[in-house]
Design brief:
Layout: H1 2-5, H2 13-18, H3 37-50, H4 52-72, H5 75-86, E1 92-95, E2 111-115, E3 118-129, E4 136-142, E5 152-158, E6 164-169, E7 180-191, H6 204-211, H7 214-237, E8 244-247, E9 268-271, E10 279-282, E11 285-288
Parallel strand pairs: 1-4
Antiparallel strand pairs: 2-3, 3-7, 4-5, 6-7, 8-9, 10-11
Length: about 300
């Protein structure tokens, strides 16, 4: 229902925080759960197995926004921003992608110009998870165009800052309960102490890409969706007359009916079009199909 209505269940966030799921990787002193990447991957897999949208939102909040601040922020920035994010009191966003810089992310056009003790941001971002509803957003902007990717700086921009507005919400094909939207910056004034980095210089673009294995976490989420789909297909197939191939890890066998008597839900099944040598993944098992099903 959430996916169909494109409803982002923000009300879940405090509950997720109480379970430690909004601060998986961060020490308890910053309000986190103090866990590692193995536990993190398992958490994302189990959440995404039930709802891919929530899995995506939890991953983006932990890896992109909060971890960027934790990795590169000053001690003061960690106390001010990481702690409420890790506790689930605030929702995080991370803004890199722009209308004219997708695969070439280092070619972004959003600028940050120094003015006294502040920086003025202008530009727009798109396809930003929690772009409209986020409370804390890490924004990457050009501060020195001649240095290209090394001239990109990361700023922490808080929701409600004048000149920072959430724009159009994307009408996505899937994961529609995870909000993805445009962000606009129109003379958005950000204090100098909101630049990430001990010396006032952020690790910016290259640092973020090199630190958190977010792509691995995304793959874990995709694997979870596939796993759930296969499990649901097995349940459906058990209630129909579709011919299936069954492969049991220890004792492979072929059944020419969909009833699969004697086979439990942990066994892998495939439609009769499966060919010898195909591999199907369910849970943590890789199971080869031993032969084609009877015609």
């Amino acid at each position: 229902e959430w996916d169909e209505a494109q409803y982002f269940p923000r009300h879940l966030w405090s509950g997720l925080g109480e379970l430690g799921l909004t601060g998986v990787l961060f020490p308890e002193e910053y309000g986190g759960a103090g866990l590692g990447y193995v536990e993190y991957a398992l958490i994302i897999e189990e959440i995404a197995r039930i709802d891919g949208s929530i899995g995506l939102s939890v991953a983006a909040h932990n890896s992109l926004c909060t971890n960027h601040i934790y990795q590169y922020g000053t001690e003061d920035q960690k106390r001010r921003f990481v702690t409420p994010l890790a506790k689930g009191e605030k929702l995080g966003a991370w803004a890199l992608t722009e209308p004219s810089s997708g695969s070439d992310a280092s070619g972004l056009k959003t600028t940050a110009v120094k003015s006294g003790n502040t920086w003025i941001l202008n530009g727009s971002k798109n396809f930003i998870t929690h772009g409209a509803s986020g409370d804390v957003c890490v924004v990457l902007a050009i501060t020195d165009r001649e240095m290209r990717s090394r001239g990109i700086t990361a700023f922490v921009v808080e929701g409600g800052t004048p000149g920072y507005t959430g724009g159009r919400k994307e009408n996505k094909l899937g994961m529609r309960a995870s909000e993805t939207s445009v962000i606009n910056f129109d003379n958005c004034v950000v204090p100098e102490d909101h630049i990430l980095g001990e010396d006032g210089v952020s690790a910016g673009f290259e640092g973020e890409l090199n630190d958190d294995p977010i792509l691995l976490i995304v793959v874990v989420g995709v694997r979870a969706w596939v796993r759930h789909a296969v499990e649901e297909d097995f349940v459906f197939a058990g209630e129909t007359s579709v011919q299936l191939v069954f492969a049991v890890p220890t004792t492979p066998l072929v059944s020419d009916t969909a009833s699969g008597q004697g086979l439990g839900p942990k066994h892998t099944c495939a439609l009769k079009q499966a060919r010898r040598g195909d591999v199907f993944i369910i849970g943590n098992r890789n199971v080869p199909v031993i032969d084609r099903a009877p015609e």
